[in-house]
Amino acid sequence: MLKPFLYKKKIEAGIDEAGRGCYAGPVFAAAVILPKDFFHPGLNDSKQLTERERDTLRPIIEKEAIHYAVASVDNNVIDEINILQASFKAMHLAIDQLMVIPQLLLIDGNRFKAYENLPHRCVIKGDGKYASIAAASILAKTYRDEYMQQLHQQYLHYNWSSNKGYGTACHRRAIAANGLCEYHRKSFNIFQEAAPCV
Fold first, then answer.
1. SS3 content of the chain, % helix, strand, coil (to 5)
2. What is the rounded CA–CA span in Å between residue 152 and residue 165?
């Protein structure tokens, strides 16, 4: 069962990202502040849920959260500053948008670039341990999936509606056949022999 909070008397924001390992598209991050008594039996790490379960939980989280925010950093910035720094940047951009100032940031993972003077706690596999991080993982994932669905219409042959930009066998074959497009992360050195699309 997910823990509802780390400190009962602190305003905590759960932070998580989605799309860090993708070949194409932005990295997304979400920040979520939940009520201390929030509970939903289906809430879990987004990776442990089906697409339908995530889509069902998203409006519940958005309605019940004290506040939430979602932000993204595109593939061009990822190529400039690297994916780790871009993930931190997306997290910071999400925190920037919160209308309620948290007193503690609960970060999924083992690394984070400190945000202003707010204390933070990194939690390995935190999206499976704390409700606010799990909620953030669901928002980041669903917003990113929705964005990749939209990009899919521009480049149907990459099948982003299905693989969401991850390096599946189908996606790799499409890159080998069609080259890279403007949304691919060139710094990932994906099939270096592949020519850009025109």
1. 40, 20, 40
2. 9
**pLDDT tens, residue by residue, 6-48:** 999 999 999 999 999 999 999 999 999 999 999 999 999 999 9
Judge whether 1 lies within some domain: no
List Cβ neighbours of 90 (8 Å cut-off, separation of 6 or more): 17, 26, 27, 28, 29, 71, 72, 73
In a domain, 177, yes or no: yes
Structural domain count, the chain: 2
Q: Taking the complete model, does pTM exceed 0.85, yes or no?
A: yes
The model's pLDDT over 44-76, given as tens digits with 9 standing for 90+, comes to 999 999 999 999 999 999 999 999 999 999 999
Q: Which domain holds residue 119?
A: 12-152
